[in-house]
Amino acid sequence: MTSFSFDAAFNLTGKVVLVTGGGAGIGNAVAQVFAERGAHLALADLAPNIADLAAALPGTGHFGIASDITKPGEPERVVAAALEKFGRIDVLVNNAGIAILESAEVVTDLAWDRTIAINLTASFKMARAAFPALSKAGAGRIVNIASQAAFIALDRHVAYTASKAGILGMTKVLAAEWAEFGITVNAISPTVVETELGRKAWAGDLGVQFKRKIPVGRFAQPEEIALAVLYLASGAAGMITGENLVVDGGFTIQ
Ligand SMILES: NC(=O)c1ccc[n+]([C@@H]2O[C@H](COP(=O)([O-])OP(=O)(O)OC[C@H]3O[C@@H](n4cnc5c(N)ncnc54)[C@H](O)[C@@H]3O)[C@@H](O)[C@H]2O)c1
Asked: Does residue 6 fall inside a structural domain?
């Protein structure tokens, strides 16, 4: 019988969690919180030292694989490597992403294509590659990191917004199609998060002005996004699928 006690729902001992972009920022915070709850982590990242970063997580036996997940065959290779190491995958966190911010009239083909390739296409290919393992897991979970920019207009965000709006659409279709396989698929849409990406995108006066518009008066910390991921991946959230959890200090309710 399913137990709905807090401890059972949030006990991730023995679960295998695959995180893209797990070497820095939000992805690394996700890895930390899951590792603290007893999960085994598989981190895929461009960072050549990703195996060392995985080894530095709480607990033992974590795994890191250096990969550019936009390259042909890489999502499949990453999933196969995680399966070879752990024999199962319970949770996929599609987190790797970039923000190249330019006014729409000057966005280059390269910037557009790279943004869509990482933020959207690679997320889909990771989900498709992980599907057999997630459906075998029994209560598989996918959490896609979107953004407030997925559903509001922010200056210089055209490529980023297109990629993240695509994530929300993809999340709903995968949720509907894969519910029968016991997999839930959800998105999280943060406001600005204090990571390298966030600090670069909102440096200087732009960030100061933007922060004033957020009702809680501050940006998010990576751990606040990670704990929202943990919730959606936990046994507490089995009835939630196709949803977009907005973590924005109230910015987009205005
Ligand atoms: N920081 C913010 O303000 C913010 C706000 C909303 C949404 N997000 C989203 O959160 C996610 C994480 O952002 P972050 O702020 O932690 O960024 P970050 O730049 O701090 O970290 C991103 C990580 O992804 C990895 N990565 C990038 N491209 C990759 C690729 N092709 N293959 C493998 N790994 C790759 C990087 O090496 C890095 O470790 C992104 O999807 C981003 O769009 C961030």
From this structure: no
